[in-house]
Design a protein that fits this description.
DNA_pol_delta_4, DNA-directed DNA polymerase activity, 104 residues, alpha+beta, 11% strand, 2 domains, single chain, DNA polymerase delta subunit 4
């Protein structure tokens, strides 16, 4: 068929709509529920890391770079910060400092 789309919508038994592509299947009901949310307590740990000048300035660089720089200078950064960065690698509020939304 000329002009037919390779993307189709399909209804699941639980009435959630999924998008079906020839190569990829995205089930919206499952992807939204599997996103991990960071706790306020962990966000506070990251904020305190940003505010601690012992580890050098935090503006303009990702937290992982600042963490690694602190390790190179034997400043003993908190290991929990690295664990959080690795646990939430795609969350900007984890990977970037609290000043991420302000221009330099």
């Amino acid at each position: 068929m000329v002009g037919s789309s390779s993307i189709k919508k399909r209804k699941n038994n639980n009435d959630n709509t999924s998008i079906v592509d020839k190569q990829n299947v995205v089930d919206n009901s499952k992807t939204n529920s599997t996103v991990k949310k960071i706790s306020e307590k962990d966000l506070e740990v990251l904020k305190q890391f940003d505010l601690d000048m012992t580890f050098g300035p935090c503006t303009g660089i990702p937290r992982i770079d600042r963490y690694e720089r602190a390790l190179r200078h034997d400043l003993d950064p908190p290991t929990h910060v690295l664990e959080l960065i690795n646990l939430y690698p795609n969350d900007r509020q984890v990977t970037h400092c609290i000043w991420r939304d302000y221009t330099l």
